[in-house]
Every structure is written in structure tokens, then in C-alpha cells.
Amino acid sequence: MGCCAGTGGDAEEQERRVRREDLRASAQRGEDGRPRLILSAPAIRCGQCIAAIESALPRLPEVASARVNLTLRRISVTLAAPDSDPVPVGETLAALGYPATAVEPGTPASEGSDAAGLVRAMAVAGFGASNVMLMSVAVWSGAGEGLREAFHLLSAAIALPVVAYAGRPFFASAWTGMRAGRLNMDVPISLGVLLTLGLSLFELVQGGRHVFFDAAVMLVFFLLVGRYLDALMRERARSAVTGLARLAARGGTVIGEDGATRYLPLEDIRPGMTLRVLPGDRVPVDIRILHGGTDLDRSIVTGESAPAPAGPGDVLEAGSLNLTGAVEAEVLRPAGESFLAEVTRMLEAAEHGRGRYVRVADRAARLYAPVVHTLAAAAFAGWIFATGDLHGAIFVAVSVLIITCPCALGLAVPVVHVVASGRLFQAGIMIRDGSALERLATIDRAVFDKTGTLTIGTPQVAVDAIAARDRGAVAALARQSAHPVSRALAAILPEAAVGLAAARERPGYGIEARVDGRPARLGRAAWVAEIASGPPPAPGTAFAYAGAPAAPIALGETLRPAAEETVTALRQAGIAVEVLSGDAAAAVEGIARQAGIAEWTAERTPADKVRHIEARAAGDGRVLMVGDGLNDAAALAAAHVSMAPASASDAGRMAADIVFTRDRLDAVALAHRTARRAAALVRQNLALTVLYNCIAVPIAMAGFVTPLMAAVAMSASSILVVGNALRLKGPDAAPREGRPSEPFGRQGEYA
Questions:
Q1: What is the distance between the alpha carbons of residues 457 and 40, in angstroms, rounded to a whole number?
Q2: What are the distances in angstroms from CA 368 to CA 49, 187, 360, 696, 702?
Q3: Among residues 586, 502, 579, 576, which one has the least CA distance to residue 539?
Q4: For the chain, which terminal residue's Cβ has fewer other Cβ atoms within 10 angstroms, N or C?
Q5: Which pLDDT tens digit goes with each residue over 679-734?
Q6: In angstroms, rounded to a whole number, what is the distance separating the alpha carbons of residues 551 and 467?
Q7: Which residues are catalytic?
Q8: For the segment 301-356, what is each residue's pLDDT rounded down to a tens digit?
Q9: What is d(CA 715, CA 402) in angstroms, rounded to the nearest whole number?
Q10: Which residues pair with 749 in a beta bridge?
């Protein structure tokens, strides 16, 4: 469904209605209810394109925000209200010269037709260049006047149609931009080619001895080679995003109420349906197994390729590969809200961040057109004044127009971010905000939550102190929370028929409710003691009915695999490390000691954690917060940058900038190491582009560069920047099992 403008009258209004409904149907709803459109705009090519779109769209009353993804050539538009008309967005883009088409999030971006067209244009330009060069060699070798004129005519007969056909990618883009009132990067390129061709035709008509058809055709050929290589390297840079599309099933086998099976496309699968997933099938949407058992390839989720067993009750994420057994499962979420769709959005968001380096590159790219045309005009005027040679002045001006290119500058930051997010995704780490990479590279302190972060998500529990008659109440309360302690209790205590009313979870404290009419609490011991009778329990986790003695719950926790190695790696990188927890001091100290962390703070509420982070950030401190619980969400949001495991609460995952799906804690060290390497590559790319222009432009203005050399240099600069970004790699660490702490030896807190 295109976003182009209509033509008039009732037909125009009908067309607008159809486009409006199509666009609204393709939009996704954000958490605030506002629609979000993903538009594919193949005409996007450089930083100027980003500036033009991101300045024009937010001016529309229907648009809240707009972000351009240069590598994917896509535009993410958030509308101002649920009932906002999306049609003006498409009309504005068309007027700017960027006709757009709505696509579903996660749909792979393809350069197929673009690359194929470039190959055809290159073939034509190469054929023309080889023939024109042969005739030029004959002329340079001293051909007679008659033969020289014949060769000039033949060269013109070949060069004119060749340039007209092979130069279309540049001419069409330049014309579109000029019609929209802007000068894009293809305007000076087209101007340089046409000036060279026009000067040659003038010399041919005047009977001059020298024409430059060979330079014009070779110029187009090398420009096409550079653009084609640039397209290939862009495709490689976004391979992590496009690769996800191959992991997405196109549909699934649904079991009806009568037991009959039928295949439904992905968009028709709804929550509550029952799916049958056979061996060899990709899981199409997020599901919970009802019957059957199997082994899964969950490398997309965990970053680990070893098969993982799954059975009734287990949740399988979209994109996982069923290896051995058939299962029947309940659909939990539609395709647009599945794990795979969320990961795809995270990867695509990696380029949208507007960090310091991106803003610098964008501002520089916006200055490109006026600066390069001014420099070319100045070079032309200077050479005319100094030498009076019109031909030489035109050639210098053409060289200046072509040799300066904003592509390298526009690609310097986003390509690195796309490559880095792809490398991290392969290791089970997803970036929710592109600027998070830049912020992560600058941290000076890492703050870890304890339960579910430094330790594995589900601790070991002992309920010996709880009376048998009360265990049903504990189980009922535990099932009201996703806290690791609650999950552990729910796993070992059977369900019982109890009356549960007014259940409420208080972050950092626990769950309270009326059980069979009696107020009860499960959670932090000091909080539970407020309603209990008798002496208060030791710090830790406890359960009590109002007016009854509190029963302690003993916890034994296990360090996450590679926790110690992570702490060591961060320290070696100059990062201070500490533990910040709501748990009891004894429990926090024990886990901190095992992880090799000397600095720890215990018994902190969610508000205390935020104040602690803000205090650490005072004086330009840059804090990484790693947490998982509902009680960590505010601290995660307050930190300079934040990370959370995929097992975190929904609030924790939404507040975090980076989510890691693997169980190993070395995801933190790996993400930090990758972010620092990405920052170094960004600085290198910016330095390369600045150095290139500082050297190339003066040389071109001095007359030492031909248009052909300028074309080669300009293409090489873009390829160099993208190739430098592709050097980024993130080798994963070898897995190592974590060791349990002293089980049931201490009282762990519910926090």
C-alpha cells in the first residue's frame, strides 16, 4: 500500500479513505495507545535525507515523532493520537521526494531490485567505457584529423545513450530532490557528469582536438561500482535484522474445538488458540505447552546452541526450533507482540538513538550541499581568474563536486550501531535504544541487584517452619507475583482451595491479601512482622496471618554462571562494582563476597535505590544499573544506562535499555566490551571522514584530481567507513557453571 497522493474530487477522497484504512491497519499500537507506522522509503540515501524527513514530519499536527533508519531505509512515525489521520504523512514524504510504503515490523528490507538495477547499469557503463577508451587511445596515439573526428563522433554516439541509461540512479535522485526544493548528494554528482558530457559535446561541435566522453562514461562506471559495493556492505551490516525474518514461521497448524486441524497464516493466529508444532517446525508465536514434550533449539533466545528440553507448562518463544517431539500448546500473544517481533524492534531501534556522535554527523551532513557547491564555484572562479582556461576550470569544479561525499559521514555512526547490535544479538543481548551503546561505553560504575540478577532467577526455598495447614495460603499468595522467591514457592507448594481476595503486590516488600477472610502477608520479614504477633522473625522472608506468629522461609541462592568473571572483567576495565539490594544484610554480604564484590548496600526500598543511583550519578558519575525486579524498575530508569535479564518483570524489561536472554552474567561484560569497541570504531569513522575531506578537497581545488579520480576516491571513502564498521566482533565466553551458595544457611530477604 503506497503513500502517494490522490488526484481529485470524489475519486480522490475515496482513494484517501482507502489509504487511511490501509495505513491504520498496518500500524502498531504503542503502550500509550498511539499508532506507530513503519514506512519503507528506498530513496533515503544520506544524512541530508534524514535531516529533511525528521524536520518535516514532526511539523505535522498528526505526528508526535519521526525517526529514520538509514541502513534499513525505513521511517518510524508515531502519530499524535489514536485517531490521527496517517495520510498526510505519506503525502508529505512524497512531496519531499521520498515516496513510502507501509510495511509490517520485522519484514526484511531488501536491496534486491536496487542491486539488480545497479548491476545492469554497471554492465552498460562498463561496455561503453571500454569501447570509448579504445577510441580515445587511438586519438592519443596520433590519429589523423579525419580519423580523430570519426572517433569523436563514435565516442559521442556511444557515450550519450550509455550515460543516459547508466546514470539514471543519480539523475532520478537528483531530479526528485530538486523538485522537492532540496539539494541531495546526487545533485553535485549529476552536475559533474553532465558538465563533463556537455563540455565534450561543445568541443565536438566546435571541432576541438580534445573531448572527454571517456571521462564521462568512466566517471559513471566508477560511481556505480562504489554505489553497488556500498549497497552490498549495507546488506551485510543489517544481516542480523534481515536474518530474523528467516526465523519467523509464515503460519501454524491450529487445532479446532472439534479436533480438526487447519493451517492459518501468522496474522490470523490469536491468543487462546491451540497450536500443534511438529518436529522441524519453527514456533510461530509465543506459546505455552499443554501436551507433549520435545527438545528445542533456543539459540535465538539464549545465545546457546545446545538443545533444551521442554514439557507441559513451559513457555516457548516465537522463532525457537522444535527438534524432536510434537507438542500441543496454547497461544499466549499475537505475532506482533511475540518475542521475535520484540527482538526485531529492538534491533531496528539500535540505529534510531540520537547520541552525541549521531547529532554531530547529522549536523555536518546537513551542511554538505551548500558547502560543496560554494567550494566548487570558488574553485571554478579561481581557476578562470588565474589561468583563463575554461576547460581546466570546469574540470576542477567537477572534481570538487564529486570528491566530497556525505555518505561516509552519514554512515559513520549508524552502521557501527547496526553491526554491534547484530553481534550482541547473536550472543543473546538485545539493544532497546541505539544511544544505549554510546552511554554504556562511558560508564564508570556498575550497580547490581542481588536476587534474580547476581543470583539465578529461582532460588531454593525451605518451608519447614510453615505449618502444613498454612502452606495452601502461602502457595496462593506466591502465585500472585513473578518475584523469584514467589516462583520458587509456587513450584514446590501444591495449589489448595483457599479464598483469596484483595491481593496486592507492594514492590520491595511482598504480597498481601485476605485469605479465607484473614489478612495475610508474604514477603520481607520486617514488613510481615507489622501484622504478626510474638517476636519478630530474623531478617529475611516470612509469612504470617494478622495476629499470628510469623513463619520464616529459608532461602539458598546460586550465583549466576560467570558472575565472578564478569566482576573481574569490569574491574579490569576500570569500572567500580557494587551490589544494591533490598535483601537482608547477611544475605547480601554473602552473595557479594562470593561474587568478589567488596562494596554492597542492603535493605533498600525502591525509592532508596533511586536515591542511591542519583547520589552515585552526582558529579558527572555514569552508572550502569543491572536489575530484574519490579522493585528495580525505577532505579533502572534513573541510571545512565541499564540492563535486565529476559527473566525480569515486565516493568524491569521495559525500563531497561538492554535486555539479555542468556543465563550467564557475562552478557554484561560482553555488552560493555562491545560498546567500547563500537565507540572506538565510531571515532575512527568520524576521523576518517574528516581526514578524507580535509585532504581530498584542497587537492581537488588545486587541480591535482581528475573527475575520474574523484569518483574513485568518493566511492572508496564510503566503502572504507562501512568496511571499518564490519570489523566489529563480539566473541562469546565459554560457558561455566555457577556454584550454589550456602543453601538454607542464611535468611534471604524478599526483595
A1: 40
A2: 12, 11, 13, 15, 20
A3: 586
A4: N
A5: 888 888 888 888 888 888 899 898 888 776 777 777 777 778 778 877 876 444 33
A6: 8
A7: 449
A8: 554 555 778 888 888 888 788 888 888 999 988 877 777 676 666 555 544 444 55
A9: 10
A10: none
